[in-house]
TrEMBL record:
Keywords: ATP-binding, Coenzyme A biosynthesis, Cytoplasm, Nucleotide-binding, Nucleotidyltransferase, Transferase. Pathway: Cofactor biosynthesis; coenzyme A biosynthesis. Residues 135-149 have a biased composition (Basic and acidic residues). It comes from the Archaea. Its EC number is 2.7.7.3. The gene is coaD. Reversibly transfers an adenylyl group from ATP to 4'-phosphopantetheine, yielding dephospho-CoA (dPCoA) and pyrophosphate. Its main location: cytoplasm. This is Phosphopantetheine adenylyltransferase. GO terms for molecular function: ATP binding; pantetheine-phosphate adenylyltransferase activity. Belongs to the eukaryotic CoaD family. GO terms for cellular component: cytoplasm. Pfam families: CTP_transf_like (PF01467). It is found in: Cytoplasm.
Length: 172
């Protein structure tokens, strides 16, 4: 089986890891990673998004041990369009979160228009932070929580613009 999922993954957090885990349970995985041009357009909040290369490096580091533990292959491809790779005929499954389910349905409409079979859409529930709210990259970069959902009231967040050279925490 071939599994697709996509996102900005800036930063990768435990909610993303739940998506990846389910993907590797189902098959070999292709992750569409938003391009530098697309990434800001997919944000609900105006914030700085790290470069494609930096995000890809961190994403691969997270995917490698998961792929190995499931004896699966993976690749990371650049997404320049929101429906991206999942409209290609080779995929069987699409992994989505609850808020991206509608995007998955749109992908299946495009697939039908192109004469491809629809994808099985697997919705993976959100992972909750210790405060009962969902873990999200936006909450992490705003300094509310860390990537595991621990509340971090003393941590500074990331702004809407590229950090200055004297910033010490570039992994937010």
């Amino acid at each position: 089986m071939h599994v697709a999922l996509g996102g900005t993954f800036d930063p990768v957090h435990d909610g993303h890891l739940a998506l990846f885990e389910r993907a590797f349970e189902l098959g070999d995985v292709t992750v569409g990673l938003t391009s530098d041009e697309l990434a800001p357009k997919t944000r609900h909040v105006d914030r700085y998004v790290r470069s494609f290369e930096d995000r890809k490096r961190d994403l691969v580091a997270e995917l490698e041990p998961l792929a190995e533990s499931h004896d699966r292959a993976f690749e990371v491809r650049e997404l320049s369009d929101p429906t991206g790779i999942a409209t290609e005929p080779k995929f069987d499954y699409l992994i989505v979160s609850p808020e991206t389910r509608n995007g998955g349905e749109r992908i299946n409409e495009i697939r039908r228009e192109r004469g491809h079979e629809p994808l099985e859409i697997e919705v993976v529930d959100h992972v909750m932070a210790e405060d009962g709210e969902r873990i999200s990259s936006t909450r992490i970069v705003e300094g509310e929580i860390d990537r595991h959902g621990n509340v971090t009231p003393d941590r500074n967040g990331r702004g809407a613009t590229r950090p200055t050279a004297d910033s010490s925490d570039t992994s937010q």
